C-alpha cells in the first residue's frame, strides 16, 4: 500500500503532503480555481481573456515548484504589460473600498488573497533555495494585477 501521507511531484520527488512545497503547489491550485470562477462570471470580455492567460501562467508557476524553473522573463514582462495597461484604465481609489460587489469581483478578491498566501510560501521556499526569485516576483505582481482587474470589473466601489 502506498503511504497516504506522501505525494509524488511531477519530477519524481516524493514529499510529505504537509510539506512546504505541497502547501505551495496546493495554494497555487486554489488560486487557479478562483481565477477560473472569476473568469466564468466576468462581464468584461478583455478581463475574461486576461484571466485565461493568468490561468495558463498559474500552471507554469505550479510547474516551476514541482519540476524546476518554467517561468520565463517573457511571462514576467507580460504581467508588467498587463499591470501597465490596467493602471491606465482604472482609477485607483484613494480610500479603502469594499471590493466584493458581485460574483466576479468576489472571486477575484479571493484569488488575490490566495495569491498573497502563495507568495508567502514561495518566499519561504526561496530562502531555502527551492523557489526561484522570478516565481516569487511573478506572484507578487499577480496579486497587484488581480487588484487592478477587480477595479476594472467592478467600476465604482463602496468607500469605507
Description:
- The mean pLDDT is 92.
- It is elongated and about 55 Å long.
- It has 5 helices and 4 strands, in the order E-E-H-H-H-E-H-H-E.
- It has helices spanning 20-41, 45-67, 73-89, 103-127, 133-154; strands at 6-8, 14-16, 97-98, 158-159.
- By secondary structure, it is mostly helical.
- The strands form 2 sheets. Strands 1-2 form a two-stranded antiparallel sheet. The chain has a two-stranded antiparallel ribbon with strand order 3-4.
- It has one domain: Cobalamin adenosyltransferase-like (Hypothetical Protein Ta1238, Chain: A), CATH 1.20.1200.
- Helix 1 packs antiparallel against helix 2 and helix 3 packs parallel to helix 5 (133-154).
Provide keyphrases for this structure.
two-stranded antiparallel sheet; mainly alpha; 68% helix; elongated; 160 residues; Hypothetical Protein Ta1238, Chain: A
Give the end-to-end Cα distance, rounded to a whole number of Å.
55 Å
CATH structural architecture: Up-down Bundle
Number of domains: 1
Q: Given the helix and strand composition, which structural class is it?
A: mainly alpha
Q: Could you name the CATH class?
A: Mainly Alpha
Please give the structural blueprint.
Layout: E1 6-8, E2 14-16, H1 20-41, H2 45-67, H3 73-89, E3 97-98, H4 103-127, H5 133-154, E4 158-159
Helix pairs in contact: 1-2, 1-4, 2-5, 3-5, 4-5
